[in-house]
Specification:
By secondary structure, this protein is mostly helical. The chain has four helices and no strands. Helix 1 packs antiparallel against helix 2 and helix 3 packs antiparallel against helix 4. About 5% of the residues are buried. The model has no long low-confidence stretch (mean pLDDT about 85).
Length: about 140
């Protein structure tokens, strides 16, 4: 399968950075014994930076963009995932609140104080869930 170059400037800059990294590595290996430690570290980091930048530029220029149908399916899958997470959150929150109410009634009726620790733990989880919903609402309201 032939890859089509989507971004010719990015491809060219990727080739240039890769060639710079290769030349820098070669020069680094040739002059390794004559170099000072700090200069060796600096040249090594520069070579690694050029290598990473070159590979990322090449990858970006060769990547195939998804078609419109694939984008629609991807958005649909994201929406389904979001709805599933939302309904799971609602079910979990309802379960925690139900367990808190049942435990509060059980503590009141039986005067068995060992339920108090479980009640406090589940109550804290429910409170965190409520606060996370409120915090997420304000965050997304401000940023969207």
């Amino acid at each position: 399968m032939k890859k089509k170059i989507k971004n010719k400037n990015g491809f060219l800059s990727g080739i240039i950075f890769l060639s710079l990294a290769i030349v820098s590595f070669i020069l680094l290996m040739e002059n390794y014994s004559n170099m000072v430690f700090v200069k060796t570290i600096k040249n090594s980091l520069l070579s690694i930076f050029c290598l990473i930048l070159g590979v990322s530029e090449l990858y970006k220029s060769l990547v195939i963009l998804p078609s419109e149908d694939e984008q629609i399916n991807d958005e649909r899958e994201k929406m389904i995932s979001l709805k599933a997470k939302n309904s799971a959150f609602k079910i979990t929150l309802g379960f925690c609140i139900t367990v808190c109410i049942v435990l509060a009634i059980a503590i009141k009726i039986t005067n068995y104080t060992d339920f108090i620790g479980v009640f406090i733990g589940i109550f804290i989880v429910s409170t965190i869930m409520f606060l996370s919903v409120i915090g997420a609402y304000f965050y997304h309201d401000k940023h969207n």
